[in-house]
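Q: A reviewer asked whether we had any structural model of the full assembly, not just the individual parts. We don't, so I'm hoping you can provide one. Inputs are below.
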Amino acid sequence: MRVYLDHNATTPLHPEVLAAMLPYLTDRFGNASSLHAWGQEARSALERARTTIARALGSGDKDAVVFTAGGTEGDNLALLGAAAAAQSRGRHLIVSAVEHHAVLHTAAHLARRGYEVTHLPVDAQGLLDPDELRRAIRPDTILVSLMHGNNETGVLLPIAEAGRICRERDVPLHTDAVQSFGKLPVNVDALGVSLLSLSAHKLGGPKGVGALFIRRGTKMQPLLHGGAQERSRRAGTENVAGAVGFARATELMLQDQEGAAKRLCDLRDRLECGLMAALSGVERNGHPTERLPQTTNLAFAGVEAESLILALDLEGIGASSGAACSSGSLEPSHVLSAMGLPRERIAGSVRFSLGRTTTPEEIASVLEVVPPIVERMRRIGAGHPAAPGAWA
Amino acid sequence: MIPTPEADGKVVVAMSGGVDSAVAAALLVRERLPVVGITLRIWPSLRPPAPDERFDSCCSPGAVEDARGVATALGIPHYVLNYEAEFDREVIQYFTDAYLAGETPNPCIPCNSRLKFGSLLTRARGWGAARVATGHYARIHRDPVTGRYQLRRGVDPRKDQSYFLYRLTQEQLAAACFPVGHLTKEDTRRLAAELGLPVAGKPESQEICFAPGDYRAYLRQRAGAVIAPGTIRDTGGAVRGRHPGVAFYTVGQRRGLGVGSREPLYVIDLDPATNEVIVGQDRDLWTREVDVERVNLIAIEALTAPRRVLAKIRYAQPPAPATMLPLPDGAARLCFEDPQRAVAPGQAAVCYDTADPDLVVGGGTIRRKARGGNGNGDLRGSNAECGLRIAK
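A: Here is a predicted structure for the entire assembly that you could use as a starting point for your response.
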């Protein structure tokens, strides 16, 4: 049995999403900016999709939704666009230490261009103290960016509280809701955000499409120039099929969000408890309840995560260590590092993320396959690369 | 015939992206063995580009893609393992330390014994694989009488790489597999072309993989701060000039001394304690007696009596008749029939069987010779200490 437990990396396209997209990849191929009937047909589909996304975010303002090529573009546009628009006001940004690299590397890029970036710490469970944000905001702070649900641990940051603080201080708040959208209610007013990034492929939609919610009145500069699309906030021919797929995935998700979350939570807990019962030296990284329902990040003592993930793949189980884009890099997970976990614990940490297609049978199969592999690796000492002198 | 592992056991193939390991993998696949391709990534991956950096400038990113292409063509799983830190610790640091100590390292030797057949083998066992295969030109046989695993030269005399594998222990040889050891390079290339492997025409590289071009520039970059200029003396103790650091010299080197002389001068010794380069004439470079330490024996369990061997003191040199004598503390003395020129401390001396010249007896690391007092070293060949006459 092949078991895919890496839904935070990406999810399988929902068959109904594909069905919704297909007409826009075939007959209804028009350019949404064209004047003629073909264009109008595409335009109306695009705007319907926009309305669906806006409503899913609890917003009646569909024009606040700008379609992007995905979460990374949304994060880049939020930071670079807000920074460019607020240059006269200041050059200080605040981000958390556990942001996705799409935020962290963009902030680092701004830092190299003369901006100042404050990184807010998290505690050992991955939680962020809102008082840290209160203390970090300065008169020249132009943007705060805090992710909603962490992609590696699933831990939630206190966005609603941060939103209140930012509104008091009149600083726009951006949140990367790429992982939380579809798993938890995400309401832009309840969260009090000015900017919010989304990605379609994390919830059964297609890759290459996402959105940035830009609250009316938020000062922004575009990244891409060359057309008036997306109300001049994002030039380029609209990805109509992508937007339609994104909207359909969102509708499907909204049909039973609560039930799906409960089901995922239950399966995840079964996986967690099962592994902890079958094996010694397994610890959860991150807060036990303040987190997304589909994610668990477990530290296996005496085992090297990269090696375990490879062994699991050979047995047909897909998991990962940290973000898909940073696995294989020398840097230990910046998220687990920011939580102050010891290096050895980080080196043995694996993320399992569940999704719509995950079944109880799959979890049962994983609970059968994983423990003997971990035990074999511990027996051989494969978790501990040959210490100097181990081989003559 | 390829020495094949148990038909039910997985084999891990270390794939460098070159043609030899590609054909090694292909031959194992042809034997219907479950093959897992691994590429060790030894260079940094995730780092932001410098502002003026070209998108395509990197040291060796193509190797991973080439290996992946071969694995895809063969239909085998392929993984890239992050070996940046381990490679740095086990190979680059050894390489640097050796030059700083006035020695001439063979970085391929620890790469084989400590990485490919060290930690990679340990990891492979963790994945349930019994063996690690590489594209080395060498052969392994089990001696039916003694039960020892024998290392033999590759069939192609110009490609033989047994020299770089002499440090493998019995346990490592038992798990090693060299599928191209029975082929010539032409056979390998022909097979690669026949099998349609995408690397069939890839040119060969003989350079140090992590320091292509001038290794001195690499040393300067890596350890420039601890490399200090010093004095050049001749064998009589007279000061003959200045040098930028002993690390930049190798015994036998003639160029780069900048010392005027009627007769050509060569580096005959490097003294890290005094940071001096000792120069002399060609006749000072010849010696019959070479001491080696950290001896690893393969064909025999122990060296208890003098043994006639064919020994080579560097890779690119035909083996020469010598007698190998046991010394205390895992060392041995090689007494050559004919004097050897420019014996460089730090290099491996590898011994082959006199009657069966393909068979590796064992080898060790060449030890720096204590020079005579007052800086008046006499390194000229002398057989006196050997106390033996070698019968032809």
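A: Points you may want to mention in the reply: Chain B touches chain A through 34 residues (CB under 8 Å). The CA atoms of residues 216 and 248 of chain B lie 6 Å apart.
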